[in-house]
Amino acid sequence: MGAALFAPASFAQEDEEAVQENVIVTGVRGQPRTVTDSPVPVDVLSSEELENVPFTDANDIIRTLVPSYSLSRQPISDGGTFIRPAQLRGMPTDKTLVLVNGHRRHRAALVQIGGSGTQGPDIATIPAIALANVQVLRDGAAALYGSDAIAGVINFILKDDAEGATITAETGQYYEGDGFQFVAAANLGVPLGENGFANFSIERSTSDATSRGAEYCQSWACVDPNDPSFGGFDTTIAGYDPATFLAGLPDANIGFGDVVQPWGQPSSEALRGFVNAGYDLSPTTSLYGFANYSKSEADGSFFYRYPGNGTIENLRLQDGSLWSPLFFFPGGFTPRFFGEVIDYSGVGGIQGEFSEGFTYDLSARFGHNEVQYTLANTVNPSLGNMSPTRFNPGDLINEEFQLQADFAYDIELASMASPLTFAFGASYMDESYELVGGDPASYATGPYATPDPWDLCSPAYTPTAAGAGVVGLDCANYTTADSDNDGIEDDGIPGLDPVYQVVGVGSNGFPGYSPAFSGEYTRDSYAIYVDLSGDVTDRLFLQGALRFEDYSDFDSELVWKVAGQFDLTENMGLRGSVGTGFRAPTPGQQGTTNVSTRLPNGFPVATGLFPAGGPIAQALGASPLGPEKSTNYSFGWTGGFGDVSLTVDYYRIELEDRVNAISTQDVSNDPGAGQAYQNYLALAGAGVAGADSIGGVFYFQNAFDTVTQGLDVVGTYSTSFTEGSSTAFTASVNYNKTEFDGGASVFNAEDTFDFENGQPEWRGVFSVLHEAGPWTFLGRASYYGEYDNSDSGGGQTMSSLVQNFSPEVMVDVEASYQISDAVRLSLGARNVFDEYPDAADPAIGDSCCGRVYRSDSVVDWQGGYYYLKLRADL
């Protein structure tokens, strides 16, 4: 549960001196402390630093400035196209607590498919212009703030100016000539009488798509007529004509990109706003509140469907004629996925003093996040020629309501150098996650989900009266006998005549949520906590916290933390902490279901995700999800020597019962396929529509234990080379390594290797900011260390099937000129030298289907980007 942070109503630095000292309110209670006096490592990103990063998404801004925060773009990953997964200290964002003005931020409705099934807040909904600063606590803090704060806390502090206005406009595009972007934003502060303020922020952005892939050309199908491998698809499919097929290729992706299956960032647009307000009722009592509204739209694609891929197949209609989706899409088709994300929230509260040294903060919050899906340029194959080509497969909705009460009492003790702060509080939270059903056609089980739906053939493999006049019908077209007369050969291979063809159920690419898989999942929880902190001596600060939480769907849990900071000298100090953490799987992780196209063995197949606590996954061997538990250790050194400051922090996170998707299990209706056939029987027995067309299945589990260790080093240096100028250097380096500590048997060989080796262990950000008169120059270098990726075969020896990705350095530059007191113009380039990560090795299997670079890489693969920015302070 979130907790208020006992700062004044502004929640932020109140004057220039405080800004210069980097005062923090995150990770401590009582009086705010400076970064170097904090018992735990905290990065403070000022509004100027945030402004100097040319991104519209707060995810990208933090990724640029905080090396332990990583982010990937996944263009073909269902809802991951619209809400991107991120990590802090190598752990998914559902293990990082996100706060706004010290209050918990609600989760996004999207549960990331695969991996840890992350369901965390969508921080892209927070416009950068609304932020006074961002405080990133890089330490476990579940005892202070509650579930989710295992890897750390990110606290977004909103601006609280009561006057003035800022307007910004930025435009740019990639060196490749695509991805044009325009962003306009404004911030306005107005007084509320003599004792209050209201601060408004709004941002409007548009971004065009990019394409960094090649034409679809694989060993099984190639649509590039200039490639010797052209072909490979079934040219006997009804509706196929070579000339018509080639002419239809540009429309296979309905005009998005220059290839049938693009790889790049999606086109998107967004409108986002925040308001932050406060009012002093008296010198000791204040009202506060803030709210947001965000609406964004984006689109992406799925894998290209070529003739004979299992979706574009010959079907015999009721009149016996042959039909295939090529009659709708002459060049094949790439399902197109559209997502509209609507997010709004409100927080209100009152804070003050009962008496001197005894403060209170009472608050309530509500948050709503909704993802509305639309699928176009596709079919429900089982409906055949009756299928529409546009669907609404359903919506996802996450809502949270929380009541919070926080108190702090300063106890004067003669033996201590400062008052002992005794903080305590309680909270109640109600959560809900809803899968809203799609339109009936998006999940309907049409006639072609079963063989011979019109009874054109008899059990004796001869035409019936209905099939007697059908030209070309060959009911006896089998290679072996069908002893059980079910229309399918004993070895599971259907008859060769199209009358026996079975195709998938639901809107292809993303079947809609049927009534059986729709519904609302709810839970409530409460928590109480106590916290003691204070300066024991002039040189020693200690902090201890206990927190008890109880969930309606899980057992209760007691977590704790102790932390301290000791000044070795006036300029150097030691700090450290140890504590436990607890994270309850979200209602979304427990209830989400999905059938989509994935690459479990390097080849696209329909793959189903089912709730671990439901009958389908349990029939496959799943157990209901349980909570994750952690033990966190950190130890660090801080120092300041004139214009130089340096912090070095080691950390270790032991995480038990970590939630993650198991490796995809194969599914086959061939009785000779061993376990894959047993998985098919489990799906069919559980009533899964279209079980014949599903090629893989997986679910989330408390799969294994891990140990994450790392080191953070942050250094700054300020100097003046010439009179009237100033130069600031900053270096941030992170080393992070995660290893299994038991339970990895749920993974195959590939997934085991990639989990431990698939991300760079070293990351660094190095920047220099030089100011001279009206000119400001910024240079920033981002370093990504090497990492490895293994073959997609899964069970092979890894020694000869591993690709090593070399280190990368990407450099950003910007020059700004202060035209007048109010207006500043900036020209810059991101990745100015147009660097790309290594291309994926086709032999490894992650370059399928036109993909050149690993699409899930945390190393950006879009290339260089240049921009122009204008800022006016009024």
Helix percent band: under 10%
Task: Name the CATH homologous superfamily of the largest domain.
Answer: TonB-dependent receptor, beta-barrel domain
Number of structural domains: 2
Fold-level CATH name of the largest domain: Maltoporin, Chain A
What quaternary form is this? single chain
CATH architecture designation of the largest domain = Beta Barrel
**Largest beta-sheet characterization:** 22 strands, antiparallel, barrel
The geometry reads as globular
DSSP strand (E) fraction?
35-45%
Radius of gyration: 29 Å
> DSSP helix count?
10
Unreliable residue stretches: 1-20, 489-493
DSSP summary, beta strand count: 40
* Average of pLDDT: 87
What does this entry look like structurally?
- The chain has 874 residues and is mainly beta.
- It folds into 2 domains: 711 residues, TonB-dependent receptor, beta-barrel domain (Maltoporin, Chain A, Beta Barrel), CATH 2.40.170.20; 45 residues, no CATH class.
- Helix content is 7%, strand content 44%.
- The chain has 10 helices and 40 strands.
- It has a 22-stranded antiparallel beta barrel.
- A hairpin with a 2-residue loop joins strand 18 and strand 19.
- The chain is globular and about 100 Å long.
- The two termini are 39 Å apart.
- The N terminus is likely disordered.
